[in-house]
Prior knowledge:
A: mainly alpha, globular, B: two-stranded antiparallel sheet
Amino acid sequence: MGTPYGGFGVFALFLLFLPLAVTNDYYLNILIFIGIHSIIAMGLDLLMGYTGQISLGHAAFFGLGGYISGILTAKWGWTALAGLPFAILGVGLIAWIIGVPTLKLHGHYLAMATLGFGMIVFIFFNELVPLTGGPSGLTGIEGVSVLGFAFDSDLKYYYLVASALLLSLLLSINIVRSRVGRALRAIHGSEVASSVLGVNVARFKVAIFVLSAVYAALAGWLYAHYITFLSPSSFGFLFSVKLVTMVVIGSLGSIWGGIFGAALLTSLPEFLFVFEKYETTVFGLILILVMIFMPRGLLRGIEDMVLRVLESRVKGEGSKG
Amino acid sequence: MSLDQQILQYLITGVTVGSIYALIGMGFNIIYNSTEIINFAQGEFVMLGGLFTVTGIRVLHLPLPFAALMAVMAVALIAILFDVVAIRPLKDASSITLIIITIGASIFLRGIASILWGKEPYPIPAFSGEDPIPFFGAVIQPQSLWVMGITVLIVLGLRQFFNRTIIGKAMLASAFQPKAARLVGIDTRFMTLISFGLSGFVGAAAGIVIAPISMAQYDIGIMIGLKGFCAAIIGGLGNFWGVVLGGVALGVLESLGAGLISSGYKDAIAFGILLIMLFFRPQGILGKGKGDRV
């Protein structure tokens, strides 16, 4: 296995030149959303794919990241950049507080606890009207500007999101290749075995949960200051399920899989207008089918299929000769 | 109304809603006991129960009892189909896979329902009129009595089924020790199938009796399903009487909280209790501690 940095370099160049091929602002806008979703999916994959834990509440961290910074700019006149560390640290802290007791749970209990947490946060987004604006939404969120340079066009914002995506990607690649990454995979294999081998299972699980929440917070911050309006309905249970779907489709335990899943699920509804009415139905169907037929995800499933075909062809030629 | 009477009123509402939570929690328990799967699609069975009854009454012009019967049969069939198509092929899958599958089924069923029935809420007439019955200064809706009565009937019926019939006992056996059960000739796959059917039946029944109070709509499944799960967790997952206790306790706390504190945060109370239970006493009030299996 070679180093993944070659792939990273190619991907960075691809992101750099992609806007040359995409001249339409509408498509650029979709690319921005794909980038934002990719960041969350990548973080969630560290938790689900590598560590084998599940979260049905990541929409809440995404929303919290957006709301914390959004409220600071809209209600107290902060700049977006000043809001960023608060969004990240605030969400990290919340994730840590909730993560310590939650990650002692396993399987269904863990799923339900993260779901319950997500629901509570969603209810607060709706009910804390003086802060969040309630169901009608939070308006007046500032755009992003750094040292007088305003990211005020879709193209500029695209490069901001692309940089954030590349940074998160680099971090993920390094984590996965490090001692920590091996510990996480050991936990996925067997928590008992890895704790016997001296891996501090509880600490690693909480740490990776917090990190994945921080990815979501960064994405939430990018989202809030791009559309400059937040409404609770974007951060409900269905969005958490959509995030899980992205990771599952992309292939659990593959960093690139998260980006692939995010790109697929974000762009599909935009291109197939018929899809819109049936969106959730199709998501449900995709989840069931992928889990039954390609439990390793779509990317790997296709890879496996190609390998199988190639193998049988090689065998066929061998028998002829 | 004095404060006492108000509180009595909240209690009545709480016990009514709590009975429904108990029934739904019972549905979770039946499947959990035979497969150790938490069926995230449980709430959708409740939703489908109500909507099939609507179709029976409005489209097929059936009298209510027949419409209800048709609805529970249809939902039980869907639940069985779900087992055969999506659960059985993955017998040894990891819990994360099974969670994702049942979530997939849940949003799939909801999506289909929104296509078939549309997104508007449908009323179902109360089973026996809507004249409130005075009760120590508070009032009881006749439908509340139906809800409580049918819950008691189903709970007692299930108890008889598991304790007195061969199939019920075989189901308990295959849940307790699948390998041993197979050795004595019990078809555990068939028992799983029955448990899905039974769970669909109980869920649909809950959806039908509550529909005159809260209407039938395509998206009620998530929330009410989660509340049922809360009930099961409070009482101890898999515990028969625990879920009844848990459901009623949850319903009463929610109703008191909504009435005395804030109605907007009503659902947050249920999830708050869920988190507290999961963090501090995941085996539930009546459950006994059980070591993790490696």
